[in-house]
Amino acid sequence: MSPADPALGLLEPLDPRTREAAVLDALAAMIERAGLAIGDRLPPEVQLAQSLGVGRSTIRESLKRLEGLGVIRRRRGDGTYLAARLPPPSPAVPVMVRLEGEALLRLLEVRRAIEIEACRKAALRATPPQRAQIARLCDDLLAIVERRGEYRPADMAFHAAIAEASGNPMFGQILSRLDALFERSAESPFSRSAFGLRSFPPHRDLSDAIQRGDADSAVAAIGAIIDTVEEEIRQIIAEGPASPHPPREAQDHA
To answer: Could you give all domains of the chain from N- to C-terminal order, each with its CATH number?
Structure first.
């Protein structure tokens, strides 16, 4: 018997009316209550489906969602394994908010390493036209933020211009893939219009540092940007989302 099989006893059939919303909560609770560690194998799909009283396709979609969040890793012909620790339980914060938040924090770790070096290189290597473009894109971005507009495309363009100015096209390619790696619903607190707004003032510092060719200040500015977003994510994980705002297209800096 696999180490994960006793976990099946912790599952109960779900009400069909709420199963789409509840199945992820049930799986996350099972992992946490069974004490599964990173590297442990989860029960097979068919057994999960039977225990929860849902179709196998529902389980498959839920596992796909958890895989997208980096919580599990699926090996063809071998099984499904826990790949990341789960956040501690909190009755005030829905499990999916905590899972999304933890996934964003993992993504930020990667972005921090990449963007610090990209910004350093951009400050040292950018040509005069590239510096001018970065300054213009920063002006455009902050103007959009000021009027509470859809800032994600402008934010992506600003960071893409910095990556291009680094002189290493791999920075831009990797960051572009990271942007597409994590998707969330419009209902997610990490998709709301107010998420990440506190991180925008340091964008001006970053742009100005690149204009001066000041690599140390550029690194400090991108660090401040990422620190601010990380702090906000941790606050949401701990306390839950603030009063909801009208949902809109997913957006972040992670």
So the answer is: 5-82 (1.10.10.10), 95-239 (1.20.120.530)
